[in-house]
């Protein structure tokens, strides 16, 4: 009997022990589950907070970008400048920021070469092709006082060297050689220039020659030159030539080490930095009738701007008033954005 009672007591204690153990396991499982649920909840809350913070950061960034854009588009530019006509445009945002006599007829002088260069890079794909410098035409230009790059009449020069000779030192012989190569004659090339100008939307322009030598019927507006340059810089080869400061050609008949060209913008300036930016490239021009002219491209506060000026009262012996106007206007843009 006692043995049976002891056995019963042992079984009872075992049941109690197993019950306690089961309860402990259950509680521990519940506790661990609760911890996991809490951790999952915390992670979810942290993710919500992270997303909310990211959205707020993005909203503030977009608001700052809108504010800066509004500042850029509403920058006030003082157009009391040397040039008689001018126009400046924010290229990225497609907005004219300021202008002065922008639709008045002007003589473009060597800004003409922008159109000549554009047509050349569109028509001639082989930049290593050799082109002969016309003799009679170039001698006639020389007699008229046209600027020259330094190639000799009758010499054969690569298209690439002609492009840089056209743009940097403003060589008229380069324009004539390319014109004759493309259209057979400068007169026929002028017809192509007028056709291309109309295609680009230059409705108030007429061209008679490829270099910009003065002719009464060779005219444009600063607005039309702006339209031309804005389209031209989309061409990769044009952009590369236009924004180059210095270039050395292959050896020539007169120069066994090649001819080194430097942009005419730097004739009297060692640097073209402006407030929070720099002038990337440009084409100067001058005749007595045109005055000092400049079509330029600048990077200010990380964005591109185009400025075209004409009619500054100066010459090759005076201060470069067209370049001074460019530095002035681009610096006004940079200073206005910085001050906000």
Automatic annotation (TrEMBL):
Residue ranges that the Swiss-Prot or TrEMBL entry lists as coiled coil: 37-79
Q: List the keywords (alphabetical).
A: Carboxypeptidase, Cell shape, Cell wall biogenesis/degradation, Coiled coil, Hydrolase, Peptidoglycan synthesis, Protease, Signal
Tell me the Pfam families matching this sequence. Answer: Peptidase_S11
Record: active site: 110 (acyl-ester intermediate), 113 (proton acceptor), 170
Its EC number is 3.4.16.4
Q: Which domain of life is it from?
A: Bacteria
Question: Quick check: keyword Chloroplast in the entry?
Answer: no
One example of the protein's molecular function in GO is: serine-type D-Ala-D-Ala carboxypeptidase activity
Which residue range or ranges hold the Peptidase S11 D-alanyl-D-alanine carboxypeptidase A N-terminal domain? 80-313
Which GO BP terms apply? cell wall organization; peptidoglycan biosynthetic process; proteolysis; regulation of cell shape
Q: Does the keyword Thylakoid apply?
A: no
Binding of substrate, residues: 283
Gene3D superfamilies, per database record? DD-peptidase/beta-lactamase superfamily
The similarity comment for this entry is: Belongs to the peptidase S11 family.
Q: Protein name, please?
A: D-alanyl-D-alanine carboxypeptidase DacF
- Species source reads Blautia hansenii (Ruminococcus hansenii)
């Amino acid at each position: 009997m006692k043995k049976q009672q002891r056995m019963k007591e042992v079984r009872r204690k075992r049941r109690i022990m197993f019950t306690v153990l089961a309860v402990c396991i259950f509680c521990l499982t519940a506790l661990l589950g609760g911890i996991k649920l809490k951790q999952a909840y915390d992670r979810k809350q942290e993710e919500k907070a992270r997303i909310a913070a990211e959205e707020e950061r993005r909203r503030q960034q977009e608001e700052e970008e809108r504010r800066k854009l509004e500042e850029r588009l509403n920058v006030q530019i003082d157009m009391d400048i040397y040039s008689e006509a001018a126009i400046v445009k924010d290229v990225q945002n497609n907005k004219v920021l300021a202008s002065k006599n922008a639709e008045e007829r002007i003589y473009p002088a060597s800004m003409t070469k922008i159109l000549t260069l554009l047509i050349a890079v569109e028509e001639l794909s082989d930049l290593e092709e050799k082109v002969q410098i016309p003799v009679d035409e170039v001698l006639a230009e020389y007699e008229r006082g046209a600027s020259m790059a330094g190639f000799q009449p009758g010499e054969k020069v690569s298209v690439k060297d002609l492009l840089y000779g056209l743009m940097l030192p403003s060589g008229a012989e380069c324009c004539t050689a390319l014109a004759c190569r493309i259209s057979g004659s400068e007169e026929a090339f002028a017809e192509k220039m007028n056709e291309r100008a109309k295609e680009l939307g230059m409705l108030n322009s007429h061209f008679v020659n490829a270099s910009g030598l003065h002719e009464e019927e060779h005219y444009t507006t600063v607005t039309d030159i702006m339209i031309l340059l804005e389209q031209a810089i989309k061409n990769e080869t044009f952009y590369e030539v236009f924004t180059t400061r210095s270039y050395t050609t292959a050896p020539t008949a007169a120069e066994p080490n090649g001819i080194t060209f430097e942009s005419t913008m730097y004739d009297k300036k060692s640097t073209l930095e402006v407030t929070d930016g720099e002038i990337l490239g440009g084409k100067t021009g001058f005749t007595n009738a045109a005055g000092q002219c400049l079509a330029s491209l600048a990077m200010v506060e990380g964005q591109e701007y185009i400025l075209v000026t004409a009619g500054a009262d100066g010459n090759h012996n005076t201060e470069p008033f067209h370049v001074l106007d460019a530095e002035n206007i681009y610096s006004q843009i940079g200073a206005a954005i910085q001050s906000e």
